[in-house]
User: What shape does this take?
Amino acid sequence: MTKIDVSEVKKKILQILENDGPSVPTPVAKKIGMQPMFASAILSELLNEKRIKTSSLKVGSSPLYFIPGQEQRLESFTENLTGVEKEAYLILRDNKFLEDTHQEPKIRVALRGLKDFAIPIQHNGKLFWKYFTIPNEKIRNALLDEGEVAIGERVMGQKILQDIKPENIKSKEEQFEEAMLKSEKKPEAQQSHPLGKVKSEPTAETIVSNPERITAKLEEKTETPILEKIKPGKIKKLTEKDLFLENVKRILYGKNIEILETVSYDKKQVIAKARVNVDQTCLLFFFDKNKPEEKDLVKAYKKAKEYKLPYYIITNSEAPKKIQENIEVYKHLLGIDSVE
Assistant: This one.
């Protein structure tokens, strides 16, 4: 077997990235005459040595590898952004500078995922975003008439949707549910007066981001839009399983996962065709349980096989270590054969 001079291969890869700019592993592998798997392994070593960086942006399923200082060349790959991420990118690129609270909820979520292009800035308790090519000093000078300006990593640790009020992304079903509950409490007031804005304590159980339990309750007050002449008898109440489905949709929204088609659901689980990582379609399983079990993986595998799709599982906490180890083992298994 020919021995590979890893240090020499690293030099070649660095030279390729220097000349060609950001790249996924496959083109690099072709130029150095190696299998993509081995090229990826060496790229990972260079990454650990901090001699190269990777993008948050994905081309297909792979990030881009590049040399520090080539960040601006990532703009050449923005055609790989789709949906809300592309919309948020264009808004930020065209405006150069945005105040977070002035954006739509979906744009605010997407900006948090555009780590290559959206740089967070904290000023006087407010969050702003600048396009990554705009010099820090230009923004600092514009904001520094009073208060401290923090640019970059200090505000990147925020959880997605942490500061987005849940009422801004309430579904129509939830709005009607709250209006229904209000009408049952004060029927006489509604019959004698046109219904304006109604302030009510939310009763639908919900989750905004990274829940410990699916049954965490909203703590903020909400306002329903103006609804005229509501007749309680004609408003369909949401069932427990419908409320669970709405909660799941909100959680997935925060994870940038889009439900394409609901296959089945009840008050403890949701199975749906979904889009993850921008362009990857899968069969998604959301289980309301603390940890997935092996039987859940088998169930998901069999169901996904029917749809000829990969599968994705979400539960309330991480999978047990044993399951994680088994996933790693099977991921690299090429096959099992016998001598017979």
About this structure: Residues 81-155 form one domain. The chain is about 35% helix and 20% strand.
